[in-house]
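Incident log, structure service

09:12 report received: a user says their structure output differs between two submissions of the same chain.
09:20 pulled the input from the user's history:
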Amino acid sequence: MQEIQRNIKKYEVVVIGFGFREFDARLNAIVLRDQDGNPSGSIFVLKNLTEERDLMKALEDKTTALEELNENLEKKVMERTEEFEKINRELERANQLKGRFISNMSHELRTPLNSIIGFSDVLLERTFGDLSENQERYVKNIYSAGKHLLELINNVLDIAKIEAGK
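09:34 re-ran on a clean worker, output below:
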């Protein structure tokens, strides 16, 4: 038998074990030397690599699965971001339409309302003749209700302008 002259580190071998089952193992060996430096013996250590390789395979599988999950997550984030951007554009457009609607409606309501207020003011000034007590009370109600409604419409229009940043 040939003598081992140097140390062996991480040398992989196939070992035939109990029941003639083969398994991969890692061999480490050191040469023991006497005081004069002559080889006097050896120590061999065999480590079964089956469990280590199974763990490495499981780790690779989990890493691959994690990479796939990460890729899917990135794809979903991109899809959701696109959806949110689209919804945001739609909301901006709806907000612009709302602002235009409020502005147009305010104008459309103020025009006839100013006419009602103006005519009731002319009637109260008795430009076309005297009013009975009931008529004067009704015209005053029309005038004050018209002024109140005009104030509400102007407030709504001011709020719409503020929202529009004007």
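09:41 both user submissions now match this output. Likely a transient worker issue. Closing.
09:42 reviewer note: The longest strand covers residues 22-33. Helices lie at 50-124, 133-163.
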